[in-house]
Amino acid sequence: MNTSNDTLYSTFFYGFERDAKADTIILPDPIATYELNTGNFVPVGVISNLGFDSLRNTAVKMEGTKDGQLFYISSRFVSLDSSQSTQVVFDNNLVFSKPGNVALRLITLHLNDQNRSNDTFIQAYKVQVSNDVGVDSILFPIASSRLATESLVKPRISISNYGIAHQSSDFGLNCRILDPKGAIIYDENEQVTLDSAETKTIDFSKSFTLIDTGTYTILARTLLGTDQYLPNDSKTHQFIVYNSSNNELSTVFPEPNKRYIPHQFSDTLRPSIRITKTGEDNLADTGMAYMHINAVNSTYIYTDSISFILNLNTNPDTILIFNKPFNSNIKDSFNTQVWIGSKYDGYKPDDSLAFQFSVMFATDLSHIKDRFEIGPNPTKGDLFIKAKSGNSILHLVIIDSKGKKLIEQNNTAGQSSAKLNMEHLPDGFYFLLLN
Known about the structure:
The chain is mostly beta strands. Helix content is 1%, strand content 51%.
């Protein structure tokens, strides 16, 4: 019996035909601690061919990442026979430009690789920062907050020292605020020191008052000259300023830039003003109104004040009549100042008026002729008055040169003509007052 040829032995290989592996990263040394933005490094990685087939011009990539953000990338092409390994020196110099925990990734990019599980090797690194301060948050005004006009604002900023070095010398913290038109209305600095890992809340010493309504922008930034990492140096956001409660001095009597006729009013004429209350908040308010009138060419002075109560629901428009009468028989020009003051007034620019009016006889009748036909003049009997261009005549008065009222007549509303009988008056000059 022959048993020598009963068994056949064969040798075969088990594995992948194409399998490029990222083994490790040699440089930079993963044990060392690195300084932010300090030093240039040439990355070196090791890759192996674990497949049966040779690798020809296979791409290999090195990436640096921080929190998913890429800060370094470089590529090379390698060729390897089966079971060979090689070091890959990358062309681009590496700078650790991100602080904290970062990672380098060595990646093989063979298009037909049959084993993807070993294509990437990741190495962690620690990047420290000696000098790094930054703004944590703007604590006041808060982002998207609503502040009433006339609010007093004093910025409050939180800052931290993220570096390992103590900042024992003063450095600047700047706060800048822009109004709704983009104009800089606040630009102040505070001097600060910070120990490593310390956080401080800085209250700015200078405050300012909000005037205009609209959207404001606030920007806070640290000003450390040796700062190695700038992205965390500033914070910015917007806030809203609205009209909470406003008392507007809307109209006034005597009217600005108007000419009145002597004796047009009796000596009991009392000046008046209209205050209009507006605003988003329904705030009742109390205050005082003041009027000062002084004649330009004489010594006559008028001064008076009056208190008021305003409520948006009951009387948004309030007419105040001063107690002291104004002498309207003095022929002169008058400089006038009117102002109001109240507790919850949210907008001061509309609280005062300064203007001039006059009391004197007319020397130019063209503005009257454009609006009325009056005649005959002189007359021995009836005087006819007719309004033009849709004007109406409500009230007519005839006075003499001493201001004495001789004839007074009221018309029906909307009536555009009138007749006055003057035949009983003696010859002389008279004045016609029309409303």
